[in-house]
Amino acid sequence: FHSSRPNTFYHVAPKPLFCLVLRGEKQIHIGTEMILCGPGDYWISTVEMPASVWVRGATPYLGLSFEIDPAEIIEIVTEAEIEIPRQDANEKIGPSALAPKSDRDVRDACARLVLLLANPRPSTYLADHFKREILYRLLTGKDGALFYQKVVTQPSQEGIVRAICRIKDDL
C-alpha cells in the first residue's frame, strides 16, 4: 500500500492480515483502541473487524501487507516442527490484533519480498516462499506464541477444528 498524500483516512474491515510499515506512519483505530505504527512496526489483524486507518505525517507512506490463512500457519508449524510454548493471554492490543516491533529477520524477509517487485517478471513462486519465511519468522520470534494464539486458536473454534483435521490427515 502506498500513499503520497499525508492525512489519508479510510475505513477497512480486513481479513486476517499482516502489515509492515516500511516508511511513514499509520494510526489504526479498532473500537476504542488506537495503534500507532511507524517504520519497522507491524500490525496483525487476526479476524475480520472494522477499523479506521489514518496515514499520518508529511512523508509518503509505504507498507507491505498480505492475508494470513490460519491453515497455512498450522502447516508451517507442522512442517517446520515449531514448538509453540503456552502463553497467557497477555495481549499487546485488543482481543483481535497484535502490534509489535519487527525484528531484523522479519524485516529482511519482507525486503526480499518487496525486491521481487523490481524484477520485470516477479516470481510468484519466490513470493510464496518469502511469505512463508515471514510467517515462519513471526512464529519463531519473541511474540510467536502470541501470534499463533491470536491467529489460530483465538478467533474461533474453527481454527482448532482445522488443526485437528490437519493433524489427522497428516498422521
What does this entry look like structurally?
With 171 residues, the chain is α+β, with helices and mostly antiparallel strands. It contains five helices and nine strands, in the order ββββββββαβαααα. The strands form two sheets. A five-stranded antiparallel sheet has the order 1-8-3-6-9, with helices on one face. The chain is globular and about 55 Å long. The termini are far apart.
List the helices and strands and how they pair.
Elements: E1 2-3, E2 8-12, E3 17-23, E4 25-30, E5 33-37, E6 42-45, E7 51-56, E8 61-67, H1 70-79, E9 97-98, H2 104-115, H3 124-140, H4 144-153, H5 157-170
Antiparallel strand pairs: 1-8, 2-7, 3-6, 3-8, 4-5, 4-7, 6-9
Strand content: 25-35%
Q: What order do the helices and strands follow? A: EEEEEEEEHEHHHH
Largest sheet: 5 strands, antiparallel
- Helical/strand content category: alpha+beta
The radius of gyration over CA amounts to 16 Å
Count of alpha/pi helices: 5
Low-confidence stretches: none
